[in-house]
Specification:
Helix content is about 35%, strand content about 20%. By secondary structure, the chain is of the alpha/beta class. It has a single domain, classed as Vaccinia Virus protein VP39 (Rossmann fold, 3-Layer(aba) Sandwich), CATH 3.40.50. Helix 4 links the parallel strand 4 and strand 5.
């Protein structure tokens, strides 16, 4: 992956972003700005947030977002002396936000499509940034 540019959408803790970087890619990691931007179709949002806040435990949604996504990402980023660029956006706004008019050799979507109300709208936004390859990693089961 030397000299490839990679966009990791829905990067969360950054596992795949850091793996792409280890293999020589220049990586941009994108995740939602806040848990309130998480679509969560088919879920009771308040109940899901309440359960997650008990699991971690977190005092509020900002702290929960840090404990679930940003804290682990920052920990690995610092320990690995990473150069992964982290951006915050919903998938729907990718092509019109900070990354507009950029082209990536590879766009990687982790297990995010089931978390979206409008997966086709999301794919339309992502393909505008895709110069060569789009990889969609999708599991079969939901939970």
């Amino acid at each position: 992956m030397s000299n490839m540019t990679v966009l990791d959408v829905g990067s969360a803790t950054g596992f795949f972003a850091f793996e792409f970087e280890k293999r020589g890619a220049q990586v941009t990691s994108v995740d939602i700005p806040s848990l309130t931007d998480w679509d969560m179709p088919g879920y009771n949002r308040e109940q899901e947030f309440s359960e997650l806040m008990k699991y971690y435990p977190a005092a509020n949604l900002e702290e929960l977002c840090y404990l679930q996504f940003d804290g682990p990402f920052r920990f690995c980023y610092e320990r690995m002396r990473s150069k992964v660029a982290r951006h915050y956006s919903t998938i729907y706004n990718l092509a019109s936000g900070e990354l507009k008019k950029q082209q990536f050799d590879l766009v990687f979507l982790g297990y995010i499509l089931p978390h979206l109300f409008s997966p086709l709208h999301a794919l339309n936004a992502v393909t505008q940034l895709c110069g060569d390859r789009l990889i969609i990693f999708q599991g079969v089961g939901w939970r």
